Amino acid sequence: MSATLSLIFGVVACLGTVLATVRVVRPAELTFVYMMTSWLVGELAMFHLVFQAIAVGLLVRAGALHEVVGAVGIVLLGVSMIGLVAVQRRAGTAACAFERGLATMIAGSTPASVSVSVSVSVSVSASVSPPRWHAWIPFWFDHRGVEVIRNLSYGEHGRRNRLDVYRPVGTTVHPPGGAAEALPVLIYIHGGAWVIGNKDQQGKPLLLHLSRRGYIGVSINYRLAPRHRWPAQIIDVKRAIVWVREHIAEYGGDPSFIAVSGSSAGGHLAGLAALAPADPVFQPGFETADASVDACVPIYGPFDLTDSSGLRGRSALRRFLERSVMSTTLSADEAGWKAASPLFRVNAQAPPMFVIQGQLDALVWREEAREFVAALGQCTNAPLVFVEVPGAQHAFEVFNSVRCRAAIDAICRFLDVVRHPSLE
User: Fold this and answer.
1) Would the pLDDT of 292 be above 80?
2) Fewest Cβ atoms nearer than 10 Å: which of 41, 294, 323, 414?
C-alpha cells in the first residue's frame, strides 16, 4: 500500500511542479485546471515542499523503498522537491523584474524598449515595504493600523453598488479646500470573469498595505453577468469613480488624485475606465460627471475581447462572453465589442499606466498584454510601465506570497512617482 501511495504522490507532485514551471494553455478545455494547479503550487511552493518532505519521511518509514514502485515514487517526490526550490527561487526574482520596470518608466515605452532602454532613473520614496513574513501566512491579512468603513452605497442597485473604504487609523477629515493635506485614493475592482466575486475577496494585501502607506483604498462591488449584461459592469465602475470624486473628501481622501486598479476582469474594467473617461454610453444619466482617473494599474486584465489577432483560437473568450456576459454577439456587433476592449481605446490622453502580467498566465495570455502595451506606447506621452512577473500565474497576488509582496511594493512606488514627478 505504501509503495502505491508513494507512486501516486510522486506523479501528482511532479505534475504540479511542472505546471508551476512552464505555461500550458492547450487543450483549452483544461485551461482552468492548469491555472489552478500552477497557481496553488507556484505561490505556495515552500508549503508544498514541506508537505512533500514530510510525506517522503512517512512513506519511507512505512516501507515504500522495499518495492520498485515505491522507490520510483520517492524519486519522483525528490525531483518535485528540487523543482519546488527552483520555483521558489524564481519567485524571488519578481522584485528585480519590478525594479527594472520602474527604472524604465518613460513615456511611450513598448515591451521591447522597456527591456533595453536606458532611461529616466526612478528613485522612490523610502516607505516601508510589505513585511517578508507575510508570505508565511498567505491567508491572513494584516489589518493593523487600518480602519475599514464597509458597505457605503454609491448607486441604486443594492449590495452590488456598495463599496468599502480602507484608511489609516486616525485619518483626519479636512474641510473643503484642504485637499493638499488629504490622502490619495486608489479604487480597486475585483475580478471573477464579470460573473462572480465581491469586494471582500480580492485586493486585500494591496488595499491594506496602501492604507498603511498613507492612501485611501476603495474596494467596490459591481453588477454581475449574466443577470446584468454588459455594459452594466463598466457603468457601475464609472458611477463608483464619480461617487469617490464627489464624496471621498468626507473620509479623508483627496479627490484630486484618484487611481484605479483591478485584477483579471477587474483589470479589464480598470483599463477601460481609464481610457474611456467620458464615453456617454458608459455613463447613462450622468454623462457630464467627471469619471476620469489619474493613474491606472491593470493586473492581468484581458485587453482585447475580440481576439482580433486570432492568437488564442479555441482559447479565446468569445464563446464564454457571448453566452454569459455580452448583450450581443461578436459577429453582430463587432464595433460594440471593440468599444468594450481597452486595446481599441488607446489614446494620447491616457493616464499613467502600470500594466502587470503573469508570465505563465493560462487564462489571460501575456501576448495580449504585450500587444496592448505596444499599442498604447505608440500614442501616449504619459508614463507607461509593463512588467511580466517571472513564473507568475493568474491570480498570483490574491493572497500573500513572495510575488504578491513584490507587486504591492512596486505599485505603491509607481503611484508615489506619479503623484510626485520630482521623484523621477
Assistant:
1) yes
2) 323
